[in-house]
Structures are given as C-alpha cells and as structure tokens.
Give the backbone structure.
Amino acid sequence: MRFSLFVHMERWDDSISAEQHWQNLVELVQLAEAGGFGTVWIGEHHSMEYVASPGPMQQLAALAAQTSTIRLGSGTIIAPFWHPLRAAGEVALLDVISGGRAEVGIARGAYQFEFDRMAGGMPAADGGEYLRELVPAMRALLQGDYAHEGKHWQFPVSTAVPKPVQQPTPPIWLAARSPETHDFAVANGCNVQVTPLMKDDREVEDLMNKFETALAAHPEVEKRPEIMVLRHTYLHSPEDPEGWKVGAAGINKYYRTFSAWAFGKKDPVNGFLDPTPEERFADRPEFELESLHKSAMIGTPAEVTERIRHYEDLGYDEYSFWSDNALTHEEKKASLQLFIDEVVPNFR
C-alpha cells in the first residue's frame, strides 16, 4: 500500500489570508514528503473558497520547486473545462518542471454551480462525454502529432509542447464511480481514483468490485491499471478516547458545506457559503458524529491501520489521506504527523 496526500487551500472565512493558506498547504505537502508519501493530489474548483483551487497545475508547479521526491498529481482536472491541447501542454510542462514527477487525474466534474459559470450552464452529468473524448486526445498529443475531429473539440494536426519527461506519457488517472467509467478507464489503460465520500467500508468494497468487473471484461489489457481510494482522514491519540469527535465534527461541517454548494439555493458571498444548518439533516443518519466516526477514516493509529489493511487486502494500491476537514492547520498537521509516525511504518 502506497500513501498520498489529497489537499486544498481550505478557506472558511477571511480570518486567514490566502497567502497563509498556501503556506499551510506547502507545509503539509513537505511533511507528507518527509514521511514517505508518494504523491500529492490537488483538485480543480472555481469561485469556492472552501476548496480554493482554480489552477491545480500552477500549484503543482510551485510545489515542484519546494519538494524533491513526492509526485505531483492533479486530483482532478475537470474535463469539460480543458481543451485537449491545453491539457496535454500543461501536463507535459509540469512533467518537465518537476523532473518527471507529474501525474494527471481527470474527472467529469460534479458541482452544477461550476458548470453554470464555466460551461454555459451545461448539465454536470454531461461531463462524462468530455472525459471520454479528452483522454485519448490528450494521450495522443503527449506522444506526437495528432489531428482531432470529435463531438466537442476539433483541431488540425497539433502536438503537446514541450514533450513530457515520462514516456510515453505521465500516468493518467480517472475519477470513477459508475461501472461505465470503471470500464472506460480499464479499457483505455488508465488508473482509477475512487472515493466513498460519506459511505462506510461497504462502499469501498463495492467500488473495488466495479473495478474488478472492468478488469475481467478487458483481458486484452496486459498491464493491470492501479486503483486509489480517497478518504477524509483524522487521527487522534489512544490516550484521548473522545478525540475522534473533533475529526467527526470537522467532517460534518465539511459535508454540510458541500451540501450547501451542491444542493442549496443561496448565492455565495465573495466566494463563501455557510454550511447548511444541522437541523436540516435530522433525518440523515450519515451526518451524525457516530456515523462519521465509522465511515470516514477517523480513529487511533491502531484502528486506522486495521481498516487500511483491509483496503490493502481488497486490492487497493494507494490510500490517499484527504486532509480537507474544516479543522485548523495545527489540528491537520498533528493528525498527519500521527499517521506518518504510527501508521505508515506498518506498511513498509
């Protein structure tokens, strides 16, 4: 089992500057690198302060200069927002800047809020068409001259400039949930990223079953793609048996905010949107702290080790420590350090 860090500049109000949030992110990444993590993943989000990340490639390029070994992954870029030439060129440039450490994760996109502003209001569910067109076009451009006549993009013979260090291309990952996306990823030789979000480990098992079904359907794929599972993660000391409540409360706030952005009707104010009030989730047991304690990766090092060992036994290649949880930087740093000190060594 490899480990990676999934991180954003989480900004919940204006009490801390964007510059300080960036420095906090850099510190977490450097801590993860020193602790043996293989990759840092940064996603793409627009006009949303709680996941401030309009330019993942810019952040990863900046991190290339402040790290030396950790790989640098987009987790993920949103396919409908990226022309294939731009995607190929920026991925290749990141690979050159970082000395061959680039990884590219791609997703169809989720927030209708972003599609209303970035894609003329197209339904977010239609993003899958763009993903399936972007992946082969980007891969071809990274390897040489290529002309494209697709449904969403058309262009004459072009190529990625510069060319990537990693040949034939940097690793490509697809965010997958549906059986169709798992199947497309495997058929096209792409690695897979999955997240059970607020669901428990039965969802982790179900997602692996979808991946294995896709593998079985494509025996022509010689090299097995890899699969990564992403979970909100918070560790506490066994000497503080109530410590889990801190992480559960933070993740509860995170998902209430996610709900406000994804399903709420209020307009944000200068990029901020209050979490949906707790009383609105009175009939949603998955938001209860006890439920989050069992679904999110919250616990002591021994408890977390046991659950990740189960993921390893299921066949997952990488566990990604999702640091976004509405907590303070010091709380995040302490949790990550505890994971590095007392969980990572169990998998070496």
Q: What stands out?
A: The chain is about 40% helix and 15% strand.
